[in-house]
Design brief:
The complex is a heterodimer of chains A (531) and B (479). With 531 residues, chain A is an alpha/beta fold. In chain A, 35% of the residues lie in helices and 13% in strands. Chain B has an 8-stranded mixed sheet. In chain B, strands 5-4-16 form a 3-stranded antiparallel sheet, with no helix packed on it. Chain B has a two-stranded antiparallel sheet with strand order 2-6. Classes of the chains: A alpha/beta (531), B alpha+beta (479).
Amino acid sequence: MSLMDKTARSIAEQVRRGELSAVEVVEDAFERISAVDGRPGVLDYGEISDEDKSKVHAFITLTKDRAYQQAQDVDRRVSAGEDPGPLAGVPITVKDIFCVKGTPSTAGSRMLANFVAPYTATPVERLEAAGAITLGKVNLDEFTYGSSSESSAFQPATRNPWHTDYVPGGSSGGSAAAVAAGEGLLSIGTDTGGSIRQPAAFCGVVGLKPTYGRVSRYGLIAFGSSLDCPGPVARNVGDAALMLSVMAGEDRCDSTAATLQVPDYLSSLDKDVRGLRIGISPDYMRIPYPDLQTGEVVVADLPEEIRDAILDAAQALADQGAEIVENVPMPNMSYGIPTYFVISRVEAASNLHRFDGVKYGYRTQSEFSDLREMYRKTRAEGFGLQPKLRILMGMYVSAAQYSEQYYQRALKVRSKIRSDFEAVFDPQGAYRLDTLLTPTTPTTAFKLGDVYGDTVLMQYADQLTVPANHAGIPAISIPGGISSEGLPIGLQFQAPDYREDTLFQVGHAYEQATLDADWRKIKPQVMKFVE
Amino acid sequence: MTDYETVIGLETHIQLNTTTKIFCSCKADSWEQPPNTNICPVCSGLPGVLPVLNEAAVRKGALLAAAMHSEIRLTSHFDRKNYFYPDLPKGYQISQYDMALGKGGYMDLPMPDGSMRRVQIEKLHLEEDAGKTKYEGGRRFVDFNRCGVPLVEMVTGPDLRSADEAAQYLIRLRQLLRWLGVSEADMEKGHLRCDANVSIRPVGFTGLNPKSEIKNVNSIEAVRAAINKEVERQIELVELGGRVESWTLDWDDAQQRLTKMRSKETIADYRYFREPDLLPLELSEDWRDAVLADLPELPLERRERFMHDYELPEYDADILTGDRPLSDYYETAVEAYGGDPKVVSNWIMNEILRMLNELGISANKLVLRPEHLAEVIKMVDKGTINNATGKSVLAKVQESGKAPGDIVAEEGLAQVSDDSALQAAIDKVLAASPEELASYRGGKEGLFGWFMGQIMRETRGKADPGVTRELLGKALKGE
């Protein structure tokens, strides 16, 4: 068994005890990468070959030298009897939306293709300080704007390791695909509307969106600043818990980071779920979406396989002693996407203002006669379609004459969505839920090119995940089965503010209860390259 | 010709004198530093950075708000003001919009006729400064050093009625800022910047006519000159049957000329929205009370009190409250002296102010403490030393740091009023000046002063002038 098929916790344990060298682990990681990843994403990618179509392409930048240096440092600390940290020797990947000192930090955009960050994002710094080893920066939708990772300026785009004709989801598609294919054991992603959970579900891995503010955003190239959450992507719940415990906590560089103490998440793994109140909501089992022909909003039931996965999971947890509460109303969840359309675009448009060709990043190579023309050409050439769409919409709905009608109204709806959760989590309320169990996504992964190009429909891939971003609450996606097409199905658990411990507890209990399930024996397609 | 009234509102940007910038730990002051040497990822707007609010800026802003009689909001918000400019590295300025730190307020300006002009404050908020752009050789250079310097933007109502009043407002504001210790308020260094909104209207008309906005009036003289020029232009225009349009004008101080920057466009839309990277600014009542406990008696209040309690003329009170160290100096001296406060005022207005001007320092930096001054005045009162000696003792204290009494004793400066000693000096002078004596006795009585001078020289200035005059008179008459 390759080291890349083990858990992060067991690798760290072995490295800490000196039974395994970090350098060996890193060698294994790069071996796996060269087996399954294919060429990294680049701006000038030429033809996409059949060979390309069979590989993962999780990476934009491999930081091999840095990784070996870090590994040697960990080994040196171990042999010197120093504490190498709780993630000693664990190879990780970093979504290329985080600044990492001395490495290109591209955001998947031509705009930042030449930008080398002079500082390291707080959560990445914490992971590295805990002994984790950064293998490189992984691909994503441009500036995280998308749900398939197809919109990156760096192609070939990341493909789903379970079936490379399918998207890995997005925007943390590179993170989820890398972890699923064993290209590193952990990855740090970001979740603004579902960008960790949705690709985790599509790639059959664990993805956690922590409570807003639980993890510092310092060094994360912002999308929707009031929604963005850095979080862990891992292959099992325990590894995600370990990773969060390292990343989370107060940061003097981020005043929106919570000052609350970080609990011992690992200790919540072994708590049983007896008496835990788990809700199921019919509002998460049918989804409204706009009909492409008529523009009318139609309501459809979720695919049966996904519904069944949820009900089976509920049953498995009930068997462990959890109380299942059915018919939990979440009346405002269907407004999640329209509300998100407005709020995230306003913040995104403003956050993109700084990319103007003046200080860093791309500046037009063609002639310009004045400042305005320099701005116009730089931004026209540097941004891809997705950032442009977000700028247009964001500028429109925040304009003085429309702000009341759109932006201010969206803020009100956002607080209504939050009040749905407050009502069902209220310990004195009618439902008194500890957690709400829902599907993570309305469908399993779709094929490359199937949805891309329809920005609205693409956005609806996030409709079960986005309410948690509006509300600021934590939510986790864990693997909950494999569809008849051989694609993973994700289960989502949501919990009250700062109750990530509950998510780990219930997620771990489900994992343990289904350890021997047949679907867990199925491996991703790209593992054929590993023999 | 119609009589016109001038209507002016001022928009000021005040640089707070905090140690560090408002959202990062770079130094706030980078005066004369080479471009882009006082910057960090945060103030230069690198991808991924976040602002962290400097509490000292809030404290100074709150102190200023209180001094402007503005209500301090316990919950205020920061907002993004979005616009593109090369010296604005994030493409938005973090400012405060509809829920700013200060709400309302006013400043009372004493008018020459003794009345007060109340100037309403319409806006008072915290924000970050932008950088500087420089054009040279057809190229544009950007310096981010100033990015993130804490500012208070303060906007008055259209309440000022002349260029002189506008200048008065700035003078009083500058005095207040220094008095509170919240800003160095040096206009030359851009610590206090001003734009003026100017319109005219026929006397009796109470509405507001279209105004022009004059940018870049960054000295008291410039404010006065630019407003006068603009009022002249507007009156001339209206008299010729024209209409004033809302222009933005640039004041060229070197040429003493206004140039048109742009005419009224559609109002810029800054797409304000709450800054999601900062939490709402929540101040506790305890915090506010602690800040307000530091609020000193304000210059105008102290001026009133000096006129009332010390019965000083307005002129004296105004000068003595010109800055806080001086007025503290005066009060300490009055207390130590115990006598007529006007006497202390005279000494300060003559001797101490001259000394401060010569040394270029403020009163709290004098070696000569107010207690020393009081001691000198008392010695003069008692006749221990004369007035002239008193003045020279002040200088000696400042130089040596010794107590006035010690200096007088060591240098034997006490006045000679002993008759026999004085008589001896007089006799000596008369004996040495037979010709002058003859002239005097021959009717040239103007020589009396000359004899006094000789005696003062003989006694090295210590002669009690009253006694000397009496004895000299007798001696000259040959009595």
